[in-house]
Amino acid sequence: MQREREFAEKLEQILPPRLVDFLKRAGEKAAERNEQAYIVGGVVRDLLLCIDNFDIDITVEGNAVALARELSRSAFDRITVHKQFNTATIKFDQWNIDFVTARSEIYEYPGALPKITPASLEEDLKRRDFTINAMAIGLSGKNYGELYDPCNGKTDLQSRNIRILHEKSFVDDSTRIWRGLRYEQRLGFQMEQRTLELLIRDIPMLDTVSGERIRYEIECILKEKYPERVFSRAFRLGVLGSLNTFIKFDTRKEEWFLRAREMNCPNVPSDLLYWLLFTYELDMENREKLIARLHLPKQIAQALRDCHAIKERLEMLAAPDITNSQIYRLLCAYSPSAIIANIIAVEEDESRKALNLYIEKLKNVKAIISGSDLLKMGFEQGPQLKELLDAVLDARLNGKALTKEDEIAIVKKMLAG
């Protein structure tokens, strides 16, 4: 097993001093308990690449929860214990630090959640997804700062390869297909040839895992800086078809994602907006299939339905004589995100013009008089009250009512008529 003391210095160069102090304290406390503690996984990978990553996972050869409890008592940090997973999380300053006991995993059948048993660090590293995520740095005693790399992850980092650890990796857990594509595009790496062959072979295994687990992987992709790169690669390899055979991801969609970022700059687009663009071409039947397959939350599911309903109104919105109030009535029931998705994706200039007008000027228009004002004027509660208020709002939207007096005059005129 490779051991390099240089990583003690690397830890202290890249991580914030208070976080380094916490890690040293964790290592010392583990040594007092005759245990070994290590930082593992993505943070080690990113340390070697000199990329900031403060998402710290500590693996313990021993009892991770007991170690976390002792550290929490000594540091007055908040601790959350996850009994069902036998793990713990300490909130230290602005960082969440996860503690896990070193473990091995057995998959009883493809797509099953693994059965977990305590194990050595080396066994723990060898059950991981990719070699570049199967490294650890020691924190305890004379092992502080030593690199543990039983799967030659450092070599794959240097050659910029994404490589699985064994030939059944994607069979055991096919979500690794999505994860591998995400790492490949984020880091600018390439899928090692045999890994790529197995990935393509095992695409059908994505049907063995739950919709929630697939959705989680998609949500992780949506949080990437350039999610369209992952989806474009997934489309070319045939992975995207495992979600729905009618989802495409071509250069046009890549431009939509870019436009979404430009519209939201300096902020990033919401995951919801990306979801709407990602699924834009689907008809209602296939939207419902995707909603059911991924168990999409109600907000996302409804926005997908709204997006489709707006698409069906684009021809009406493009009518040359359409009024502001008609635009408002066509769009007011739908999610603003669904409207913005159509602004980005629609090809018809007149439809886009109407959508933009609604978002920029009409969406927040309100009448000055209210239902209570009309009740004070002697009107009774009922359908007529809503009819009068709608007429007043339409007049304001169309520029025919600028003041409260104008609105009252419209009410009186309607009643006289």
Key phrases:
single chain; 417 residues; alpha+beta; Beta Polymerase, domain 2; cca-adding enzyme, domain 2; seven-stranded mixed β-sheet; two-stranded antiparallel sheet; 22 helices
Please, could you describe this protein's structure?
By secondary structure, the chain is an alpha+beta fold. It has four domains: 1-159, Beta Polymerase, domain 2 (2-Layer Sandwich), CATH 3.30.460.10; 160-269, cca-adding enzyme, domain 2, CATH 1.10.3090; 298-362; 371-416, no CATH class. The chain has 22 helices and eleven strands. The chain has helices at 6-14, 17-32, 42-48, 64-75, 121-126, 153-159, 169-172, 175-187, 193-201, 211-222, 227-237, 251-264, 271-278, 284-294, 298-311, 314-317, 324-331, 336-345, 349-362, 371-376, 383-397, 404-416; strands at 36-40, 56-61, 78-82, 87-92, 95-101, 103-106, 115-118, 136-138, 147-148, 161-162, 190-191. A hairpin with an 8-residue loop joins strand 8 (136-138) and strand 9 (147-148). The longest helix is centred in the N-terminal third of the chain and has 16 residues, at 17-32. It starts with 5 loop residues before the first helix and ends with a helix.
Set out the fold topology:
Blueprint (H helix, E strand, L loop, with lengths): L5 H9 L2 H16 L3 E5 L1 H7 L7 E6 L2 H12 L2 E5 L4 E6 L2 E7 L1 E4 L8 E4 L2 H6 L9 E3 L8 E2 L4 H7 L1 E2 L6 H4 L2 H13 L2 E2 L1 H9 L9 H12 L4 H11 L13 H14 L6 H8 L5 H11 L3 H14 L2 H4 L6 H8 L4 H10 L3 H14 L8 H6 L6 H15 L6 H13 L1
Parallel strand pairs: 2-5, 10-11
Antiparallel strand pairs: 1-2, 1-8, 3-4, 4-5, 6-7, 8-9
Helix pairs in contact: 2-4, 8-10, 8-11, 11-12, 12-13, 13-18, 14-15, 15-18, 17-19, 17-21, 18-19, 21-22
